[in-house]
TrEMBL record:
One of its GO terms (cellular component) is chloroplast thylakoid membrane. It comes from the Eukaryota. The light-harvesting complex (LHC) functions as a light receptor, it captures and delivers excitation energy to photosystems with which it is closely associated. Chlorophyll a 8 binds at residues 196, 216, 219. This is Chlorophyll a-b binding protein, chloroplastic. Chlorophyll a 3 binds at residues 56, 150, 161, 175. The lineage of its organism: Eukaryota, Viridiplantae, Chlorophyta, core chlorophytes, Trebouxiophyceae. Chlorophyll a 6 binds at residues 174, 177-178.
Amino acid sequence: MVAAADRPLWFPGNKEAVPDYLDGSLVGDHGFDPLGLGSSPEQLSWNVHAEIFHGRLAMTGVAGILLTSLLHKGGADVPEWYEAGRVYLDRNPNVSFGALLFSTIVLSGFVEFKRLNDIRNPGSQGSGILPEDFKGVGGPQGRTVGGPYVGGRFFDPMGLCRGSPEQTLKYKWNEIRNGRLAMMAFLGFAAQYAATGKGPIDNLIDHVSDPFHTTFVYNGVSVPFISHWSQAPPPASPGRRAYQPVSQQNLQQLRLFESGPLKSREQHDSQHIH
């Protein structure tokens, strides 16, 4: 257990804001629970499982979004993440969306049901016809760490968690930190697409090409009360004349002037001189 006084807190210098049930014994515990969502032991245990689970999903999703965006930008026949479902159904018209949704719910529901029972009764899902390695209870170490951390050769083929307890604890901290970062990144990807209709790689390229005007301020969504800035053209550079668009009427007169005889041009010039 890590003493509360020796750990970094989310609000440095304000130990009174740390609830008693966050004593530093949990991985990723910085004393943050201003709403008291983990005040009961049962709810705290559920929140721990939920955070790790969603962090793992977010890390997988963010990696997939970045990879497909890079491949798409490189010319590969890979859709962007926000078009993947539609493109798959368009390319496979014989696949029913209802059947795809039903099979996903059934398969995911089975796994989630097993996971829920294991949370309520740890170790209860470690028996049955499946091999022990697949259930995360086999291998030299087995499932000795408990909770959402599983062992065995199937879930830990490289044996990263079979070493010292200090190394295992370090990996747990790395996972929860990267999971939290990935959850925030996924939220940012979704917000970027809602504001710009583009993926993270395209948004990054647009920002690098014009870092002073391609920001969250100018997307017309993030800062609504100055959304009109996004419609205004960027200011002219110092020492340069701002570009003024030519109207259709002036353009037509210019073409007639250029195509007319030389005499009419001279008369036109003399009229302007006099």
